[in-house]
Amino acid sequence: MSARRPAPGPVGPPEDGAAIDGRAITARPDGTSRRRLLQGLGAGALGLAALPLAGCALDGALADGGGSGGAGDDLELSFLISNLDGGWVPSKSAISSYEANVWQQLTDKLVHTDPEGAVTPWIATHWEQNEEATEYVLHLREGVTFSDGTPLDAEAVLANLEAWAVGRPDEGLARVGLFPGGTYEGAEALDPLTVRVTFTAPTLSFLPTLGYHGCQLMAPSSLALSLEEQADLASQIGSGPFVLESWEPRQRVRLVRREDYDWAPEALGASGPAQLAAITFTVLPDDTLRASAARAGQTDLSYNVNPQVLDAFTEAGFVIEVPRYLGFVHGYSLRTQVAPFDDVRVRQAVTRGIDRAEILRTVFTDAWQPATSWLQAGVPETTDLTELFSYDPELAATLLDEAGWTGRNEDGFREKDGVELGFTIYPTPYLTGSVPEAELISQHLGRLGIRVRTQKLDIPTWTERVTNDPEQGVGEVTRSFVDVGTVAGVITDEGEDWFQTGSSDAELVRLRDEVAGAATREERAPLVEELSRHVLEQAYFIPLEQNVQRIYVQSPELTGITFNAVAIPSYHAARKEPS
Protein backbone atom coordinates (compact mmCIF):
# COMPACT_ATOMS: atom_id res chain seq x y z
CA MET A 1 0.00 0.00 0.00
CA SER A 2 2.38 2.58 -1.12
CA ALA A 3 2.51 5.31 -3.67
CA ARG A 4 3.57 4.07 -7.05
CA ARG A 5 7.07 5.18 -7.98
CA PRO A 6 7.81 6.48 -11.50
CA ALA A 7 9.58 3.25 -12.47
CA PRO A 8 6.92 0.70 -13.54
CA GLY A 9 7.12 -3.01 -12.82
CA PRO A 10 6.09 -5.19 -14.88
CA VAL A 11 -14.20 -34.11 -0.52
CA GLY A 12 -13.74 -37.04 0.65
CA PRO A 13 -10.33 -38.63 0.43
CA PRO A 14 -8.82 -39.06 -3.03
CA GLU A 15 -7.99 -42.47 -4.40
CA ASP A 16 -5.17 -44.43 -2.78
CA GLY A 17 -1.81 -43.22 -4.01
CA ALA A 18 -2.51 -39.47 -3.85
CA ALA A 19 0.68 -37.67 -4.75
CA ILE A 20 2.90 -35.56 -2.57
CA ASP A 21 5.90 -33.99 -4.25
CA GLY A 22 5.06 -36.23 -7.17
CA ARG A 23 5.23 -39.48 -5.18
CA ALA A 24 2.44 -41.62 -3.76
CA ILE A 25 2.24 -41.71 0.02
CA THR A 26 -0.10 -43.70 2.24
CA ALA A 27 0.72 -44.83 5.76
CA ARG A 28 0.06 -48.50 6.47
CA PRO A 29 -1.42 -49.82 9.74
CA ASP A 30 1.96 -51.29 10.63
CA GLY A 31 3.52 -47.81 10.57
CA THR A 32 5.45 -48.15 7.31
CA SER A 33 4.98 -45.90 4.31
CA ARG A 34 5.74 -45.92 0.63
CA ARG A 35 8.70 -43.70 1.22
CA ARG A 36 10.71 -42.83 4.26
CA LEU A 37 9.09 -40.19 6.41
CA LEU A 38 11.79 -37.56 6.38
CA GLN A 39 13.26 -38.25 2.98
CA GLY A 40 12.11 -34.80 1.92
CA LEU A 41 14.32 -33.11 4.53
CA GLY A 42 17.34 -33.77 2.36
CA ALA A 43 20.46 -32.03 3.67
CA GLY A 44 18.60 -30.29 6.48
CA ALA A 45 19.60 -32.66 9.26
CA LEU A 46 23.20 -32.73 8.09
CA GLY A 47 24.16 -29.11 8.76
CA LEU A 48 25.31 -26.29 6.55
CA ALA A 49 28.20 -28.16 4.97
CA ALA A 50 25.72 -30.47 3.23
CA LEU A 51 23.80 -27.64 1.62
CA PRO A 52 24.51 -27.25 -2.10
CA LEU A 53 25.39 -23.89 -3.53
CA ALA A 54 22.34 -22.20 -4.94
CA GLY A 55 23.73 -22.01 -8.45
CA CYS A 56 21.86 -20.82 -11.51
CA ALA A 57 18.41 -20.87 -9.93
CA LEU A 58 19.53 -18.37 -7.31
CA ASP A 59 21.44 -16.24 -9.80
CA GLY A 60 18.27 -15.88 -11.82
CA ALA A 61 16.15 -15.09 -8.79
CA LEU A 62 18.51 -12.38 -7.59
CA ALA A 63 18.93 -10.70 -10.97
CA ASP A 64 17.87 -7.09 -11.39
CA GLY A 65 17.87 -5.77 -7.88
CA GLY A 66 17.77 -8.86 -5.69
CA GLY A 67 21.25 -8.60 -4.19
CA SER A 68 22.41 -6.87 -1.01
CA GLY A 69 24.19 -3.94 -2.67
CA GLY A 70 24.67 -0.38 -1.54
CA ALA A 71 27.03 1.52 0.70
CA GLY A 72 26.57 3.99 3.54
CA ASP A 73 23.08 5.50 3.45
CA ASP A 74 22.36 3.43 0.33
CA LEU A 75 22.49 0.06 2.07
CA GLU A 76 19.76 -2.30 0.94
CA LEU A 77 18.12 -5.41 2.38
CA SER A 78 17.69 -8.55 0.27
CA PHE A 79 14.95 -10.89 1.45
CA LEU A 80 14.38 -14.38 0.00
CA ILE A 81 10.85 -15.72 0.42
CA SER A 82 9.26 -18.98 -0.70
CA ASN A 83 6.27 -17.40 -2.43
CA LEU A 84 4.12 -14.32 -2.87
CA ASP A 85 1.13 -16.20 -4.25
CA GLY A 86 -1.60 -14.91 -1.94
CA GLY A 87 -2.31 -11.82 -4.02
CA TRP A 88 -2.40 -8.16 -3.08
CA VAL A 89 -6.08 -7.51 -2.40
CA PRO A 90 -5.73 -6.56 1.29
CA SER A 91 -8.94 -8.25 2.41
CA LYS A 92 -7.73 -11.49 0.82
CA SER A 93 -4.06 -11.42 1.81
CA ALA A 94 -4.30 -9.62 5.16
CA ILE A 95 -3.56 -12.75 7.16
CA SER A 96 -0.95 -14.22 4.82
CA SER A 97 2.36 -14.86 6.52
CA TYR A 98 4.12 -14.11 3.22
CA GLU A 99 2.61 -10.90 1.86
CA ALA A 100 2.36 -9.49 5.38
CA ASN A 101 6.15 -9.09 5.37
CA VAL A 102 5.71 -6.59 2.53
CA TRP A 103 2.56 -4.88 3.83
CA GLN A 104 4.25 -4.11 7.16
CA GLN A 105 6.81 -1.90 5.41
CA LEU A 106 4.28 -0.11 3.20
CA THR A 107 1.62 0.72 5.76
CA ASP A 108 0.99 2.12 9.22
CA LYS A 109 -1.55 1.19 11.88
CA LEU A 110 -3.60 3.15 14.34
CA VAL A 111 -1.81 1.46 17.26
CA HIS A 112 1.15 -0.81 17.83
CA THR A 113 0.44 -4.12 19.59
CA ASP A 114 3.54 -5.89 20.88
CA PRO A 115 4.19 -9.64 21.36
CA GLU A 116 2.73 -9.48 24.88
CA GLY A 117 -0.43 -7.80 23.64
CA ALA A 118 0.42 -4.33 25.03
CA VAL A 119 -1.10 -1.48 23.02
CA THR A 120 0.88 1.74 22.46
CA PRO A 121 0.32 4.83 20.23
CA TRP A 122 1.05 5.06 16.52
CA ILE A 123 -1.21 7.08 14.22
CA ALA A 124 -3.63 7.29 17.13
CA THR A 125 -1.69 9.24 19.78
CA HIS A 126 -4.19 8.59 22.57
CA TRP A 127 -7.75 7.39 23.11
CA GLU A 128 -10.61 7.11 25.57
CA GLN A 129 -12.87 4.15 26.28
CA ASN A 130 -16.14 4.09 28.21
CA GLU A 131 -16.69 1.72 31.14
CA GLU A 132 -18.86 -0.63 29.08
CA ALA A 133 -16.19 -0.96 26.34
CA THR A 134 -18.81 0.02 23.75
CA GLU A 135 -17.41 3.42 22.77
CA TYR A 136 -13.89 4.55 21.87
CA VAL A 137 -12.58 7.97 20.88
CA LEU A 138 -9.34 8.00 18.85
CA HIS A 139 -7.14 11.11 18.60
CA LEU A 140 -4.98 11.10 15.47
CA ARG A 141 -1.47 12.39 14.88
CA GLU A 142 -1.33 15.66 12.97
CA GLY A 143 0.54 15.95 9.68
CA VAL A 144 0.45 12.29 8.59
CA THR A 145 -0.01 11.73 4.86
CA PHE A 146 -0.34 8.80 2.55
CA SER A 147 2.47 8.52 0.04
CA ASP A 148 0.35 10.16 -2.67
CA GLY A 149 0.16 13.28 -0.48
CA THR A 150 -3.44 12.89 0.74
CA PRO A 151 -4.01 13.32 4.49
CA LEU A 152 -4.38 10.44 6.88
CA ASP A 153 -7.16 12.16 8.80
CA ALA A 154 -10.46 11.25 10.40
CA GLU A 155 -12.24 10.77 7.07
CA ALA A 156 -9.52 8.36 5.93
CA VAL A 157 -9.83 6.40 9.19
CA LEU A 158 -13.60 6.16 8.74
CA ALA A 159 -13.10 4.65 5.29
CA ASN A 160 -10.66 2.10 6.68
CA LEU A 161 -12.92 1.15 9.59
CA GLU A 162 -15.77 0.53 7.16
CA ALA A 163 -13.52 -1.69 5.01
CA TRP A 164 -12.34 -3.70 8.03
CA ALA A 165 -15.74 -4.07 9.70
CA VAL A 166 -18.05 -4.47 6.69
CA GLY A 167 -16.14 -4.64 3.40
CA ARG A 168 -17.98 -4.82 0.09
CA PRO A 169 -18.93 -8.50 -0.01
CA ASP A 170 -21.17 -8.10 -3.06
CA GLU A 171 -18.05 -7.04 -4.98
CA GLY A 172 -15.86 -9.79 -3.55
CA LEU A 173 -14.14 -7.50 -1.02
CA ALA A 174 -14.43 -9.24 2.33
CA ARG A 175 -14.21 -7.62 5.72
CA VAL A 176 -11.19 -8.37 7.96
CA GLY A 177 -12.07 -11.66 9.61
CA LEU A 178 -10.67 -10.89 13.06
CA PHE A 179 -11.90 -7.31 13.26
CA PRO A 180 -14.90 -7.20 15.67
CA GLY A 181 -17.39 -6.50 12.91
CA GLY A 182 -20.19 -8.44 14.62
CA THR A 183 -20.67 -5.72 17.24
CA TYR A 184 -19.51 -2.76 15.13
CA GLU A 185 -22.22 -0.09 15.04
CA GLY A 186 -20.40 2.72 13.26
CA ALA A 187 -17.94 5.57 13.47
CA GLU A 188 -18.03 9.33 13.04
CA ALA A 189 -15.53 12.15 12.70
CA LEU A 190 -15.81 14.55 15.64
CA ASP A 191 -13.26 16.84 13.97
CA PRO A 192 -10.52 16.37 11.34
CA LEU A 193 -8.30 14.47 13.80
CA THR A 194 -10.81 12.76 16.12
CA VAL A 195 -12.90 9.65 15.50
CA ARG A 196 -15.58 8.11 17.70
CA VAL A 197 -16.25 4.37 17.23
CA THR A 198 -19.29 2.67 18.75
CA PHE A 199 -20.28 -0.96 19.27
CA THR A 200 -23.57 -2.60 20.14
CA ALA A 201 -22.01 -4.67 22.93
CA PRO A 202 -18.78 -4.65 24.98
CA THR A 203 -15.84 -5.08 22.58
CA LEU A 204 -12.57 -5.32 24.49
CA SER A 205 -10.79 -6.61 21.41
CA PHE A 206 -11.16 -3.37 19.43
CA LEU A 207 -8.04 -1.49 20.49
CA PRO A 208 -5.49 -4.35 20.33
CA THR A 209 -6.93 -5.55 17.03
CA LEU A 210 -6.09 -2.18 15.48
CA GLY A 211 -2.50 -3.44 15.62
CA TYR A 212 -3.36 -6.61 13.69
CA HIS A 213 -1.79 -6.74 10.24
CA GLY A 214 -5.20 -6.98 8.63
CA CYS A 215 -5.94 -3.49 9.93
CA GLN A 216 -3.45 -1.69 7.73
CA LEU A 217 -4.28 1.89 6.85
CA MET A 218 -4.88 2.55 3.15
CA ALA A 219 -5.68 5.71 1.26
CA PRO A 220 -9.42 6.09 0.55
CA SER A 221 -8.62 6.13 -3.17
CA SER A 222 -7.21 2.60 -2.89
CA LEU A 223 -10.14 1.38 -0.82
CA ALA A 224 -12.55 2.64 -3.48
CA LEU A 225 -10.98 0.49 -6.21
CA SER A 226 -12.60 -2.65 -7.57
CA LEU A 227 -11.44 -6.15 -6.63
CA GLU A 228 -9.52 -6.44 -9.91
CA GLU A 229 -7.88 -3.03 -9.48
CA GLN A 230 -6.83 -3.77 -5.90
CA ALA A 231 -4.99 -6.86 -7.09
CA ASP A 232 -2.36 -4.52 -8.59
CA LEU A 233 0.11 -3.75 -5.81
CA ALA A 234 1.07 -0.53 -7.60
CA SER A 235 -2.44 0.81 -6.93
CA GLN A 236 -2.19 0.34 -3.17
CA ILE A 237 -1.36 3.60 -1.38
CA GLY A 238 -0.12 3.47 2.21
CA SER A 239 1.55 5.83 4.66
CA GLY A 240 4.45 3.60 5.72
CA PRO A 241 8.23 4.08 5.73
CA PHE A 242 8.74 2.47 2.32
CA VAL A 243 7.04 2.88 -1.04
CA LEU A 244 6.80 0.58 -4.02
CA GLU A 245 9.35 1.02 -6.79
CA SER A 246 8.47 -2.04 -8.89
CA TRP A 247 7.01 -5.50 -8.70
CA GLU A 248 6.63 -8.63 -10.80
CA PRO A 249 3.74 -10.93 -9.88
CA ARG A 250 4.85 -13.94 -7.86
CA GLN A 251 8.50 -13.09 -8.48
CA ARG A 252 9.76 -9.90 -6.85
CA VAL A 253 8.76 -6.77 -4.95
CA ARG A 254 11.16 -3.85 -4.59
CA LEU A 255 10.55 -1.10 -2.04
CA VAL A 256 12.47 2.14 -1.53
CA ARG A 257 12.66 4.49 1.44
CA ARG A 258 10.08 7.24 1.81
CA GLU A 259 12.22 10.26 2.60
CA ASP A 260 9.55 12.36 4.34
CA TYR A 261 8.35 9.62 6.70
CA ASP A 262 8.34 10.91 10.28
CA TRP A 263 5.61 9.21 12.37
CA ALA A 264 6.95 5.82 13.40
CA PRO A 265 5.73 4.61 16.80
CA GLU A 266 8.16 4.74 19.70
CA ALA A 267 7.92 0.95 19.95
CA LEU A 268 9.88 0.56 16.69
CA GLY A 269 12.92 2.23 18.19
CA ALA A 270 13.65 5.05 15.74
CA SER A 271 12.12 8.19 14.26
CA GLY A 272 12.36 9.84 10.85
CA PRO A 273 12.95 8.01 7.56
CA ALA A 274 14.05 4.38 7.47
CA GLN A 275 17.74 3.57 7.78
CA LEU A 276 17.70 1.21 4.79
CA ALA A 277 17.50 2.67 1.30
CA ALA A 278 15.61 -0.25 -0.20
CA ILE A 279 14.25 -3.74 0.39
CA THR A 280 13.93 -6.37 -2.34
CA PHE A 281 11.71 -9.39 -1.71
CA THR A 282 12.61 -12.17 -4.14
CA VAL A 283 10.68 -15.41 -4.56
CA LEU A 284 12.76 -18.59 -4.41
CA PRO A 285 10.46 -21.56 -3.73
CA ASP A 286 13.09 -24.18 -2.88
CA ASP A 287 13.79 -24.32 0.88
CA THR A 288 17.28 -25.71 0.38
CA LEU A 289 18.26 -23.00 -2.10
CA ARG A 290 17.10 -20.27 0.30
CA ALA A 291 19.23 -21.82 3.01
CA SER A 292 22.15 -22.13 0.58
CA ALA A 293 21.89 -18.45 -0.32
CA ALA A 294 22.11 -17.47 3.33
CA ARG A 295 25.05 -19.78 3.86
CA ALA A 296 26.88 -18.24 0.86
CA GLY A 297 26.16 -14.65 1.90
CA GLN A 298 24.05 -14.09 -1.20
CA THR A 299 21.11 -12.71 0.76
CA ASP A 300 20.62 -10.82 4.01
CA LEU A 301 17.59 -12.79 5.07
CA SER A 302 16.01 -16.13 4.16
CA TYR A 303 12.46 -16.80 5.26
CA ASN A 304 11.15 -20.20 6.39
CA VAL A 305 14.07 -22.53 5.81
CA ASN A 306 13.93 -26.11 7.04
CA PRO A 307 13.84 -26.23 10.87
CA GLN A 308 16.45 -29.00 10.84
CA VAL A 309 19.23 -26.64 9.71
CA LEU A 310 18.65 -23.92 12.31
CA ASP A 311 21.18 -25.18 14.87
CA ALA A 312 23.88 -25.25 12.20
CA PHE A 313 23.10 -21.65 11.22
CA THR A 314 23.28 -20.56 14.86
CA GLU A 315 26.67 -22.26 15.26
CA ALA A 316 27.86 -20.43 12.13
CA GLY A 317 27.02 -17.04 13.66
CA PHE A 318 23.71 -16.28 11.95
CA VAL A 319 20.81 -14.71 13.81
CA ILE A 320 17.76 -16.95 13.90
CA GLU A 321 14.41 -15.37 14.71
CA VAL A 322 11.52 -17.76 15.41
CA PRO A 323 9.06 -15.28 16.92
CA ARG A 324 5.96 -16.73 18.54
CA TYR A 325 2.78 -14.83 18.14
CA LEU A 326 -0.51 -14.41 19.88
CA GLY A 327 -3.12 -16.68 18.35
CA PHE A 328 -4.04 -20.33 17.95
CA VAL A 329 -1.53 -23.15 18.25
CA HIS A 330 -0.72 -25.10 15.14
CA GLY A 331 -3.37 -27.77 14.77
CA TYR A 332 -6.38 -29.05 12.88
CA SER A 333 -9.94 -27.77 13.00
CA LEU A 334 -12.46 -30.51 12.25
CA ARG A 335 -15.71 -29.98 10.34
CA THR A 336 -18.30 -31.93 12.29
CA GLN A 337 -20.72 -32.28 9.36
CA VAL A 338 -18.14 -34.25 7.36
CA ALA A 339 -17.75 -37.99 7.97
CA PRO A 340 -16.03 -39.47 9.90
CA PHE A 341 -15.79 -36.35 12.08
CA ASP A 342 -19.54 -36.27 12.66
CA ASP A 343 -18.88 -38.72 15.52
CA VAL A 344 -17.28 -37.15 18.58
CA ARG A 345 -15.64 -40.49 19.45
CA VAL A 346 -13.75 -40.52 16.15
CA ARG A 347 -12.64 -36.92 16.69
CA GLN A 348 -11.45 -37.79 20.19
CA ALA A 349 -9.66 -40.92 18.93
CA VAL A 350 -7.75 -38.95 16.30
CA THR A 351 -6.79 -36.43 18.96
CA ARG A 352 -5.53 -39.13 21.32
CA GLY A 353 -3.76 -41.08 18.56
CA ILE A 354 -1.15 -38.42 17.71
CA ASP A 355 2.25 -38.66 19.41
CA ARG A 356 3.18 -35.00 19.71
CA ALA A 357 6.43 -35.72 21.54
CA GLU A 358 7.69 -37.70 18.54
CA ILE A 359 6.70 -34.85 16.22
CA LEU A 360 8.78 -32.39 18.23
CA ARG A 361 11.76 -34.77 18.33
CA THR A 362 11.61 -35.72 14.66
CA VAL A 363 10.38 -32.75 12.68
CA PHE A 364 11.31 -29.69 14.72
CA THR A 365 14.01 -28.41 17.08
CA ASP A 366 14.25 -27.12 20.64
CA ALA A 367 12.78 -23.80 19.46
CA TRP A 368 9.39 -25.53 19.21
CA GLN A 369 7.34 -26.22 22.34
CA PRO A 370 4.36 -28.51 22.98
CA ALA A 371 0.83 -27.17 22.83
CA THR A 372 -0.96 -26.82 26.17
CA SER A 373 -4.33 -25.75 24.76
CA TRP A 374 -5.76 -24.68 21.40
CA LEU A 375 -4.46 -21.16 22.15
CA GLN A 376 -0.80 -20.13 22.18
CA ALA A 377 0.84 -20.11 25.60
CA GLY A 378 1.56 -16.38 25.23
CA VAL A 379 -2.14 -15.53 25.22
CA PRO A 380 -2.73 -14.18 28.76
CA GLU A 381 -5.96 -16.16 29.22
CA THR A 382 -4.44 -19.52 28.23
CA THR A 383 -4.49 -22.31 30.82
CA ASP A 384 -2.86 -25.75 30.63
CA LEU A 385 -5.43 -28.25 29.35
CA THR A 386 -2.96 -30.84 28.04
CA GLU A 387 -4.80 -33.68 29.79
CA LEU A 388 -7.69 -33.28 27.34
CA PHE A 389 -5.63 -34.23 24.27
CA SER A 390 -2.51 -36.06 25.48
CA TYR A 391 -1.28 -39.13 23.58
CA ASP A 392 -3.17 -42.29 24.59
CA PRO A 393 -3.35 -44.86 21.78
CA GLU A 394 -5.16 -47.42 23.96
CA LEU A 395 -7.95 -44.94 24.69
CA ALA A 396 -8.03 -44.02 21.01
CA ALA A 397 -8.50 -47.66 19.99
CA THR A 398 -11.27 -48.12 22.56
CA LEU A 399 -13.09 -45.03 21.28
CA LEU A 400 -12.95 -46.33 17.69
CA ASP A 401 -14.31 -49.70 18.81
CA GLU A 402 -17.15 -47.97 20.65
CA ALA A 403 -17.90 -45.97 17.51
CA GLY A 404 -18.38 -49.22 15.60
CA TRP A 405 -15.19 -49.19 13.53
CA THR A 406 -14.35 -52.77 14.43
CA GLY A 407 -13.98 -54.43 11.03
CA ARG A 408 -10.72 -54.60 9.08
CA ASN A 409 -10.28 -54.61 5.31
CA GLU A 410 -7.61 -56.44 3.35
CA ASP A 411 -5.16 -53.55 3.84
CA GLY A 412 -5.64 -53.71 7.61
CA PHE A 413 -7.60 -50.47 7.96
CA ARG A 414 -10.74 -50.20 10.05
CA GLU A 415 -14.11 -50.28 8.36
CA LYS A 416 -17.81 -50.14 9.23
CA ASP A 417 -20.70 -51.12 6.98
CA GLY A 418 -18.22 -51.60 4.13
CA VAL A 419 -16.79 -48.05 4.48
CA GLU A 420 -13.09 -47.59 5.24
CA LEU A 421 -12.11 -45.25 8.06
CA GLY A 422 -9.87 -42.58 6.55
CA PHE A 423 -9.42 -39.01 5.41
CA THR A 424 -6.94 -36.72 3.66
CA ILE A 425 -4.68 -34.06 5.13
CA TYR A 426 -3.52 -31.28 2.82
CA PRO A 427 -0.49 -29.81 4.64
CA THR A 428 -0.61 -26.04 4.87
CA PRO A 429 1.80 -24.21 2.56
CA TYR A 430 2.09 -21.51 5.25
CA LEU A 431 4.16 -23.60 7.68
CA THR A 432 7.62 -25.05 7.13
CA GLY A 433 7.62 -28.62 8.41
CA SER A 434 3.92 -29.19 7.77
CA VAL A 435 4.53 -31.91 5.17
CA PRO A 436 6.78 -34.22 7.24
CA GLU A 437 4.56 -33.58 10.26
CA ALA A 438 1.47 -34.70 8.34
CA GLU A 439 3.31 -37.80 7.15
CA LEU A 440 4.28 -38.68 10.70
CA ILE A 441 0.68 -38.20 11.86
CA SER A 442 -0.36 -40.49 9.02
CA GLN A 443 1.88 -43.18 10.52
CA HIS A 444 0.54 -42.62 14.06
CA LEU A 445 -3.07 -42.94 12.96
CA GLY A 446 -2.24 -45.78 10.57
CA ARG A 447 -1.22 -47.85 13.59
CA LEU A 448 -4.78 -47.37 14.89
CA GLY A 449 -6.24 -48.55 11.60
CA ILE A 450 -7.07 -45.13 10.14
CA ARG A 451 -5.96 -44.53 6.57
CA VAL A 452 -4.62 -40.97 6.31
CA ARG A 453 -3.49 -39.70 2.95
CA THR A 454 -1.41 -36.53 2.60
CA GLN A 455 -1.09 -34.34 -0.46
CA LYS A 456 0.97 -31.18 -0.85
CA LEU A 457 -0.64 -28.25 -2.69
CA ASP A 458 0.36 -24.74 -3.67
CA ILE A 459 -1.37 -21.80 -1.98
CA PRO A 460 -4.15 -21.13 -4.51
CA THR A 461 -5.04 -24.83 -4.77
CA TRP A 462 -4.81 -25.31 -1.01
CA THR A 463 -7.19 -22.41 -0.44
CA GLU A 464 -9.66 -23.87 -2.92
CA ARG A 465 -9.33 -27.47 -1.69
CA VAL A 466 -9.30 -26.79 2.07
CA THR A 467 -10.45 -23.32 3.09
CA ASN A 468 -13.23 -22.98 0.53
CA ASP A 469 -14.37 -26.62 0.35
CA PRO A 470 -16.96 -27.45 3.06
CA GLU A 471 -16.60 -31.17 2.23
CA GLN A 472 -12.94 -31.23 3.36
CA GLY A 473 -13.12 -32.42 6.95
CA VAL A 474 -9.68 -31.31 8.16
CA GLY A 475 -8.53 -27.70 8.09
CA GLU A 476 -4.96 -26.96 9.17
CA VAL A 477 -4.76 -23.85 11.35
CA THR A 478 -1.83 -21.42 11.56
CA ARG A 479 -3.82 -18.39 12.65
CA SER A 480 -2.88 -15.35 14.67
CA PHE A 481 -4.93 -12.83 16.62
CA VAL A 482 -4.00 -9.99 18.94
CA ASP A 483 -6.84 -10.32 21.44
CA VAL A 484 -8.63 -13.45 22.59
CA GLY A 485 -12.02 -11.76 22.28
CA THR A 486 -11.86 -12.20 18.53
CA VAL A 487 -11.84 -16.00 18.93
CA ALA A 488 -15.61 -15.88 19.29
CA GLY A 489 -15.86 -14.49 15.78
CA VAL A 490 -14.54 -17.59 13.99
CA ILE A 491 -16.05 -20.62 15.70
CA THR A 492 -19.78 -20.49 14.86
CA ASP A 493 -22.00 -19.36 12.03
CA GLU A 494 -21.77 -15.75 13.18
CA GLY A 495 -18.20 -15.93 11.93
CA GLU A 496 -16.23 -18.48 9.92
CA ASP A 497 -17.95 -21.53 11.48
CA TRP A 498 -14.70 -23.48 11.72
CA PHE A 499 -16.33 -26.61 13.13
CA GLN A 500 -19.52 -26.54 11.02
CA THR A 501 -21.63 -26.56 14.15
CA GLY A 502 -23.57 -23.45 13.13
CA SER A 503 -25.56 -22.56 16.23
CA SER A 504 -26.42 -26.18 17.05
CA ASP A 505 -24.04 -26.44 20.01
CA ALA A 506 -25.83 -24.33 22.60
CA GLU A 507 -22.90 -24.39 25.00
CA LEU A 508 -20.50 -23.19 22.32
CA VAL A 509 -22.89 -20.38 21.42
CA ARG A 510 -23.27 -19.35 25.06
CA LEU A 511 -19.53 -19.25 25.62
CA ARG A 512 -18.98 -17.45 22.32
CA ASP A 513 -21.39 -14.71 23.35
CA GLU A 514 -20.09 -14.39 26.89
CA VAL A 515 -16.44 -14.20 25.81
CA ALA A 516 -17.25 -11.62 23.15
CA GLY A 517 -19.49 -9.63 25.49
CA ALA A 518 -17.24 -9.47 28.56
CA ALA A 519 -16.71 -5.88 29.68
CA THR A 520 -13.48 -6.53 31.62
CA ARG A 521 -10.52 -8.85 31.20
CA GLU A 522 -11.06 -10.19 34.71
CA GLU A 523 -14.57 -11.25 33.72
CA ARG A 524 -13.37 -12.72 30.45
CA ALA A 525 -10.47 -14.93 31.61
CA PRO A 526 -12.50 -17.75 33.24
CA LEU A 527 -14.90 -17.72 30.29
CA VAL A 528 -11.99 -18.27 27.88
CA GLU A 529 -10.86 -21.26 29.94
CA GLU A 530 -14.39 -22.65 29.88
CA LEU A 531 -14.61 -22.16 26.11
CA SER A 532 -11.22 -23.80 25.58
CA ARG A 533 -12.19 -26.78 27.71
CA HIS A 534 -15.41 -27.27 25.76
CA VAL A 535 -13.68 -27.06 22.37
CA LEU A 536 -11.08 -29.64 23.43
CA GLU A 537 -13.53 -32.00 25.13
CA GLN A 538 -15.62 -32.06 21.97
CA ALA A 539 -12.42 -32.49 19.92
CA TYR A 540 -13.43 -29.72 17.55
CA PHE A 541 -9.78 -28.71 17.39
CA ILE A 542 -6.69 -30.95 17.51
CA PRO A 543 -3.67 -29.08 18.97
CA LEU A 544 -0.23 -30.11 17.73
CA GLU A 545 2.49 -27.71 18.94
CA GLN A 546 3.08 -24.06 19.75
CA ASN A 547 2.90 -22.24 16.46
CA VAL A 548 6.21 -21.01 15.06
CA GLN A 549 4.98 -20.07 11.63
CA ARG A 550 7.74 -17.65 10.71
CA ILE A 551 11.44 -18.50 10.62
CA TYR A 552 13.93 -15.77 9.73
CA VAL A 553 17.59 -16.65 9.06
CA GLN A 554 19.35 -13.30 9.22
CA SER A 555 22.83 -12.05 8.51
CA PRO A 556 24.60 -10.98 11.73
CA GLU A 557 25.14 -7.61 10.03
CA LEU A 558 21.44 -6.80 10.51
CA THR A 559 20.22 -5.07 13.68
CA GLY A 560 17.22 -3.02 14.79
CA ILE A 561 14.49 -5.39 13.58
CA THR A 562 11.34 -5.48 15.72
CA PHE A 563 8.32 -7.81 15.70
CA ASN A 564 4.69 -7.12 16.51
CA ALA A 565 2.03 -9.24 18.24
CA VAL A 566 1.63 -11.50 15.22
CA ALA A 567 5.38 -11.96 14.60
CA ILE A 568 5.63 -9.73 11.55
CA PRO A 569 8.90 -7.76 11.33
CA SER A 570 9.33 -4.03 10.84
CA TYR A 571 12.43 -2.83 9.01
CA HIS A 572 11.89 0.87 9.71
CA ALA A 573 14.69 0.96 12.30
CA ALA A 574 16.74 -1.87 10.78
CA ARG A 575 20.43 -1.20 10.24
CA LYS A 576 22.97 -3.07 8.22
CA GLU A 577 26.71 -2.94 8.67
CA PRO A 578 28.46 -2.35 5.35
CA SER A 579 30.38 -5.40 4.17
From TrEMBL:
GO terms for molecular function: peptide transmembrane transporter activity. Residues 119-468 form the Solute-binding protein family domain. Residues 1-21 are annotated as: Disordered. One of its GO terms (biological process) is peptide transport. It holds the Pfam family SBP_bac_5. InterPro entries: Peptide/Ni-bd, SBP_5, SBP_5_dom, TAT_signal. GO terms for cellular component: ATP-binding cassette (ABC) transporter complex; periplasmic space. Coiled coil: none annotated. PANTHER family: PERIPLASMIC BINDING COMPONENT OF ABC TRANSPORTER (PTHR30290). This is ABC transporter substrate-binding protein. It comes from Brachybacterium paraconglomeratum.
